[in-house]
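Try it yourself: sequence plus guanosine-5'-diphosphate-alpha-D-mannose, in.
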Amino acid sequence: MGEKFGTSGPRALITGITSQDGAYLASLLLDKGYRVTGTLRPGGTMLNRAWRLETMGLAGRVTTVTVDLTDARAVSWLLDDHAPDEVYHLSAHSSVHSSFHIPAETFASNAVATTNLLEVIRTRHPRTRFYHASTSEMFGEAPEVPQTEKTLFRPRSPYAVAKVAAHQMTTLYRIAYGLFCVNGILFNHESPLRGPEFVTAKIVRGLVRWQAGLEDAPMALGRLDARRDWGFAGDYVRGMWSMLQAEGPDDYVLASGRTWSVRDFVSLTANALDMRLLWQGEGVGEVAIELDSGRTCVTVDPALFRPAEVGELRGDSSRARERLDWTPRVDLPELVAMMVAAEKVRQGLA
Ligand code: GDD
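Structure, out:
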């Protein structure tokens, strides 16, 4: 990587290209004829960064640049060098759980980096269209269900507070300077490329390995009652692109409109594996027992609870459906089946 590919077609810059969404979006944009450059953050090895691009067959088809987006001068050079028509700003500290341990770093990655990009666009590249990866997590202890673009934010994590700041900054640059800046308020979205620090990938990996006899101990989870609106990342990156093709800039919720609990997600995964589960007990004493073996395969560990939890998130994506003609195509049981199949391959079981 490091070389530019293609000499025509619009230019897109994806910050955080090695993330789940970065890989799906790069694939979509390449199919549409874009020239794609992506940023990587300094540090880390190529091995644990490039696997998603390799899985999607994209290694060698995109240009990559290592850059610290919290450094304003580096951001200025980046945009001058690549002169993108569209910037998709996906790079962020994305784990809500770990943001409680590194709040300042989370704020810099999520809020300061966004401000740097907006400021360079304002001063040097005002025709560049800008997408900011906002999130349902900003709603926090939401005053209403479902949540729309108009719902008040009551963030409940350092991650969410930083995302609210970046979201508001993006809106401000649209209002104050007339720039084409949009916020995509995406509800949880998963795929076979999801990292195991997130609950869906952790559950799929845990139960696939359990069934194959690769795990002795039960899988420990945090809050089983937390409810999320889960969709497929491949559907959500289509929405990102559509937001930047619209006539004017605005903010859009992307969501399935349905919620499931973490417990439901465990049960769906067990179904996909033809495992029969029995839930027993309550609170921190709740367990799932595999009926065929009589063994406990899921327990609750309060150490995995967050200092402040977001109970239920459910999105209303009417605006995106009406104005962008966006609809999700993959439902949660299909998504779980997709994740289970990919995990079996990853574990050498299929
Ligand atoms: N990670 C994790 N691990 N979460 C657990 C666990 C566990 O063992 N047990 C229960 N949970 C619960 C969490 O408490 C949370 O309520 C829910 O599962 C989902 O957690 P995550 O998968 O970590 O995702 P998230 O909702 O906190 O955040 C994700 O979605 C946001 C909205 O799109 C991330 O992708 C964020 O970056 C994103 O903004």
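One thing you can check immediately is this: The chain has a mean pLDDT of 95.
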